[in-house]
Amino acid sequence: MKRLALLLLLPVLALAYYDVQWFDLNHWSSPVENWGPWGYDLTQSSGVAGGSWPQPLENFYVFCAGPWFGAILPSPSAETLCTVFYNPNSGGGEGDPTLCRYWRDGGGNMRDRIYKYPGDWPPSHSRFPMAPLWRLSDMDMWCCFCDSNPDNHTPPGRPLGIDVYLTVYGFADSLAQDFFFLKYELANCLGDSIRHAYFGMMLDADIGNHADDLTGLILDRLFQVGPDTIRVKNTGYAYDYDTVEVAGSTWESGTPGIVAVMVLSTPDSLGLTAFKKFMWGADTMNDADQYLSLAGYNYKTGAYEPYDSIDVSPGDKQVLLATGPFNLAPDSVLTFWYVIIASPCDLSELALRCKWAREYYDNRLAGVAEETPSAEVRTTNGATIVRGVLYLPRDMTETRPGVSDRVPRPVLLDISGRKVLDLHSGANDVSRLSPGVYFVRQASGVERAASSVTKVVLTE
User: Fold this and answer.
1) How would residue 437 be classed by pLDDT, with cut points 50, 70 and 90?
2) In terms of Cα–Cα distance, which of 300, 303, 298 is closest to 276?
3) What is the mean pLDDT of the chain?
4) pLDDT band with cut points at 50, 70 and 90 for residue 284
5) What whole-number distance in Å separates Cα of residue 155 and Cα of residue 73?
6) What is the bridge-based pairing of β-strands 419-422 and 384-386?
7) Does 72 have pLDDT greater than 70?
8) Average pLDDT estimate for 128-133
9) Per-residue pLDDT averaged across 45-50, rounded?
10) Distance CA 310, CA 91 (A)
11) CA 40 → CA 7, 144, 192, 201, distances in Å?
12) Residues in Cβ contact with 47 at an 8 Å cutoff, skipping those fewer than 6 apart
């Protein structure tokens, strides 16, 4: 069995409400913890690898994973701090399963749990007004965690003052059977700007036997798969060095494949700015070392080496996929999207799944508006979506003074471009339409000027 030190993931004096729920859809099965890690199964004795693929086979690919966040605090302290929600060497995690504003409450609150559709949905909006109301996939999951508990940090490290909102998405469609999505929303609760910041995903990928894995990077590459030319970017992966695993507690049967993390979206289109490879037992880091790694440096030598793309010696490997630098203003929120993909051990097969994942992200998730509990709404170019109703503000439907009535009125188009509904200001009943991707075409307000098109997604 791999290291038992990961019992430290759960603090000894746990007063908060710690919860574990499973994402188990199509070929993937993985636990999600509401204090930051995912992939680690704490329900089995002292804990074991929990991210398996392809169901129903119990072939384990992920031992544990979780986000990292590092920054340099403003003067006069100018401290370099890093919060890691999963540390593969110490086995610790520095997260607390609630928001910064609640963590001192003590005793735990059952509302600080993981919410999962179908069933336990939506999240409690009296406690979490930022949480989604409507589900966007066949297995939405939502939870939040923070880094405000100083007892969770390894000295001299201390809290940065951040909240993280995690939403997990998965689709039951046949093309989506090998991947699921992670959306991290990073909120600054410090009361001051956080500057020179980096955010990343730490993946401890154990493919069966943890001691014989290799890693790889696809930073930007074209693949020819049949008649298709597929461009894959910002993707790190792990695989078994000889594609052979002996049946045992972490491997049921079959030929080992690939597990990958693709960075889908980052603030300011930064993309993947660092891909760092580590070996368990050889990389014990403090906050400054972790920050340097997020920034793309070799923390041992100080050399700037952002992409560890070559790996020739099998071992117990971890990879860090990071993006930055960026600034986080007080009370602001930035969003980061990842997709976790498994495939047979062939990069062309992985490229196909990267293509399909990108299409699901673009067409089913990116830019989709979600209703909030108040009258305010999240919008996409002015169009607001609620279940069964599409709301258009008045300024999207009325012409400007002096503009001819011949200016086209807004219409709703299906994905093929066919008009399915004339629209008007206010609430438009779309409950009779099939769920899926549609487009609102609105006039610019000037006769013969080009129309603008807004993508919307109708949910059940």
Assistant:
1) confident
2) 298
3) 86
4) confident
5) 16
6) unpaired
7) yes
8) 91
9) 79
10) 26
11) 10, 17, 34, 15
12) 4, 6, 7, 9, 40, 41
Residue type, 383: A
Q: Are 290 and 82 in contact (CB under 8 A)?
A: yes
The DSSP-derived string for 353-366 is HHHHHHHHIIIIIT
Q: List, in order, residues 6 or more apart from 441 with CB less than 8 Å away.
A: 408, 410, 411, 412, 413, 451, 452, 453
CA 362, CA 239: separation in Å to the nearest integer?
A: 27
Closest listed residue to residue 199, CA positions, set 265, 125, 279, 123: 265
Half-sphere CA count of 70, side-chain side, radius 13 A: 28
Buried b (16+ CB within 10 A) or exposed e, 179-193: bbbbbbebbbbbeee
Contact 30, 43 (CB under 8 A): no
CB count in 10 Å sphere of residue 423: 19
What is the rounded CA–CA span in Å between residue 343 and residue 262? Answer: 13
221 in Cβ contact with 262 (< 8 Å):
no
The rounded distance, in Å, linking the Cα atoms of 265 and 336 is 6
Label residues 112-137 b or e (16+ Cβ within 10 Å = b).
bbbbbbeeeebbeeeebebbbebbbb
Q: Do the beta carbons of residue 114 and residue 34 sit within 8 Å? A: yes
Rounded to an integer, what is the distance from CA 142 to the centroid of its chain? 11
pTM over 0.90: no
Residue 367 near residue 335, CB atoms below 8 Å = no
Residues paired with residue 181 on neighbouring β-strands, in sequence order: 169, 339
Q: DSSP letter string over 151-197?
A: GGSPTT-----EEEEEEEE---SGGGTTEEEEEEEEEE-SSS-EEEE
- What single-letter amino acid sits at 192? D
The span from the CA of 329 to the CA of 162, in Å, is 12
| Minimum mean pLDDT range among 49-63, 196-210, 400-414, 421-435 | 400-414
3-state secondary structure of 40: strand
Residues 288, 78: contact at Cβ < 8 Å? Answer: no
User: The tokens 């509904």 sit on which residue?
Assistant: 421
Which helix (DSSP H) or strand (DSSP E) does residue 292 occupy? Answer: helix 287-294
Containing H/E element for 143?
Answer: strand 141-146
- Show the domains of the chain with their CATH numbers: 5-365 (2.70.98.10), 384-458 (no CATH)
pLDDT of residue 460: 66
